[in-house]
């Protein structure tokens, strides 16, 4: 058991030199609608994550809404109206003054798998807290506005009214809804006709819980700064909602309720019309919902989920439902409806000349995959196709591959588990540096092993070989895999950015609230969730890699190609935050560089930083765990440690001291990362951590092939210090440490407080659509 840091450890040591400049970073190198789409229900495990799920945020049969979601700020909390009749909902007004918030951010200008038991034991990776040497040096105090060191308490939060903490832990450098509940990214695309990026998202405006799920909408010229479409107030940014809810979805409730009356679930988009032509039309392909609740663990009723189209001819100002919806209907009796499915949702569609060639198509086609599974058999990714000339006519090609229930491609520590159901699936190809195409899938997996991962939901990817089956369908054979995000992010989805010839991925980053049945501080903050930074996916290749004792091969994270020197080229899925977006959000930040060299103890570099910053550090070598500390208070009552642990090849975000407030999760988040051993030096590669803190959201990227997202909620505004971490008794050589303090605001058209009045939906409203009362 390691000892936690105490304030007595703040002693002077190691002198440090640092330079301060005012420019951006150096020139860089070249995700749902299932249970996570809603509020968590069921029992809560020892790691402060759900251990049972009712699907789509619905309480399990054994739990009443009030028992599942009791809250000190609300007599009961539950999911809300599906009717969209907001006029009869009662508003809940704040009852306490808002705390002092930090100054508004500077605006930016546009410029053969093995079966695995769910309870199979896995050796613990990490326990206790980071040990920091007693020779803990202080750094510079930094500059900027005074930051309060008065801690906010659990009792104070519970006594506050709605939206009083709206700006306290809110991000401003990330994509986030104006207010209210948000989850999956949807419909991301580039419109070449108007030179505009579009991004939609699952949204329940004016509520802090999942329910009545709609699509919100924002646009951008560069994916750096964003603009709400329709406005930021209340539900103005809603593009379309169930049964015509929202000013932009002129759908007749009497006719639409048969297929989308209870939800507009996730989907994707293309800048084409129904005939596959680029004429300025924007086409959305989404899951329409007519029956709830739904879960992979329960009976799947006919008509639950169908697939529908909507389109816009005015650049996204309004959307019209296709008159022939749904285009893939549960009543047809065609597969996968005869599968006894666990679910059937989240269409991911796009053209693929490469698949056209594999299947020998005489004309261009579009291809769509969905999240699904067969009860008692295994998760599935069904593949459908339509000729580009008629995107309303879809044909089933079969499942891409057929994993068994709760199996893994390789060791669970490195490749995760397939679970029992797939959600928010994707299927795409990427070129390597020679131009050869490689095929990848991504999927959210449900119900798998939780002995290593913090929840039963994994965000995974696989690379595989693609071939044509004898029956004319497509066979995907996985050969490598891993986690798209090792933390809480889910519903990862991507699009082809044709403007820059790259694949861009978005992911949902839910909150990490554990008190009050998962709703602690939700009404006081007035919102839940955001998206991660946009990420570039690419084929990551490293030459001259050694496969000592078959360690790299056995992990199944990389594909190895032998070279002429007895070593290998290692290939895996690369991931990095979009370099141009990072340069944009750090352009107005204060750039600081700290001295490199050997560290024999942990050391504070700056005692006053920011809760909106980038921190980049390279660990060239280390004898034990090493990394960085951030979000630290001057007395070290609060701090978060991010480290690489060489003993078990893991990246850890240790949150035991991240907040003194009880209602937030504080478990350590762990991800697998094994550095390659390079033949040229016979030493492991250096480890570069690129870390982004933006309010409560914390993203960690390592060596452009690892991502982890989590949340921290310090109780003190002054918990902004950062430094270098070295395990007690160890030493580390730091190649470089850089900080960009004070990242910019990517929503220049919104006020800092864009909160909306929260609505309480009555039982009279919600009984019509089988919802329950709540907000």
From TrEMBL:
Residues in the signal sequence: 1-19
Record-level Gene Ontology MF annotations: sucrose alpha-glucosidase activity
Lineage: Eukaryota, Fungi, Dikarya, Ascomycota, Pezizomycotina
Listed Pro residues bias regions: 96-105
Family: Belongs to the glycosyl hydrolase 32 family.
Top-level taxon of origin: Eukaryota
Keywords: Glycosidase, Hydrolase, Signal
Native source organism of the sequence: Friedmanniomyces endolithicus
Protein name: Glycoside hydrolase family 32 protein
Annotated SMART domains: Glyco_32
CDD domains reported in the protein's UniProt record: GH32_XdINV-like (cd18621)
